[in-house]
Design a protein that fits this description.
21% strand; alpha/beta; binds S-adenosylmethionine; two-stranded antiparallel sheet; 26% helix; eight-stranded mixed β-sheet; 6 helices
């Protein structure tokens, strides 16, 4: 069996390594068959609060050709075998019965040529829950609790490295909303940009992630390592009660 971690491999091969119901929760975002694999320039003008038109660069990623067909029945059967609970984005595109709750991610991106929302299947409830978090080019949400408000400081925006990248805050919202225990083992079969794994790591959960494309794997693994290093530093500072300013030479504690 594979250890916890992030692997560059086909998730079908990866999942075959694990026993039935090994993972407590799989949060996955497989291919929808919409050719959203790059190669499309989505730049458009958007009207800002002050009425000015601003060119929003959105797209321009290299075509990596992975989104020609939606994930098939074999994938879902294997995913349901290895996991007790599932949240699966893109459930409106799949020819597989996913009867249960729904998460609607409202991207607060009115006026864009892309979908206004994405829908996920949620096996943990029968409810429909809405996460509002702005995601359109450089327009991003302020926080999980005020996701419909634009982040005022673009320097704080999440860097985008993948054509179908979801925000880390969307995964944070899921973990918080459903009170996912730290002890739960998590799985993401289609990691892409590693937004999911960053949230899993931050929450303190053990996880396994798969990404088949070497180029995406390499850039997202680098992103994950950078974020993980930061998370470890914050945890260390919290645990030790250290404060850089207090200990700086020449300063009074
Ligand atoms: C919809 S994207 C995931 C985006 C991700 N949720 C994010 O926030 O960045 C799907 C990803 O799955 C990868 N992929 C496609 N088939 C795969 C397979 N059989 N095993 C693992 N990864 C696969 C693609 O290369 C692509 O990066």
């Amino acid at each position: 069996m594979l250890d916890f971690g992030y692997y560059c491999m086909d998730c079908m091969q990866g999942m075959s390594e694990f026993p039935d119901k090994y993972f407590d929760l799989a949060i996955c975002d497989p291919e929808y068959g919409r050719k959203e694999h790059g190669g499309i320039n989505r730049g458009t003008y958007a009207v800002q609060k002050n009425g000015k038109r601003l060119y929003v660069r959105d797209g321009g990623y290299e075509n990596r050709g992975w989104d020609n067909e939606p994930a098939g029945k074999e994938y879902f059967s294997e995913l349901l075998r290895v996991s007790k609970n599932q949240i699966i984005f893109g459930c409106n595109y799949f020819d597989f019965p996913l009867v249960g709750g729904r998460i609607v991610w409202d991207k607060c991106n009115d006026g864009s040529d892309q979908s206004n929302a994405e829908i996920a299947y949620n096996s943990m409830t029968n409810r429909v829950d809405i996460c509002r978090y702005m995601w359109r080019g450089m327009f991003q949400g302020k926080s999980i609790t005020e996701g419909w408000v634009q982040q005022g400081n673009k320097a704080l925006n999440e860097r985008r490295i993948h054509p179908t990248q979801k925000p880390v805050n969307l995964y944070r919202w899921i973990l918080q909303k459903y009170n996912i225990p730290k002890s739960w083992k998590l799985l993401d079969t289609h990691v892409g940009s590693a937004s999911s794994l960053i949230a899993f790591q931050e929450a303190g959960n053990k996880y396994v992630g798969f990404e088949i494309d070497e180029k995406y794997y390499s850039t997202s693994n680098e992103r994950l390592n950078q974020e993980t290093a930061q998370i470890s530093m914050f945890e260390y500072l919290e645990e030790t009660g250290s404060n850089c300013q207090d200990t700086a030479p020449g300063r009074q504690p």
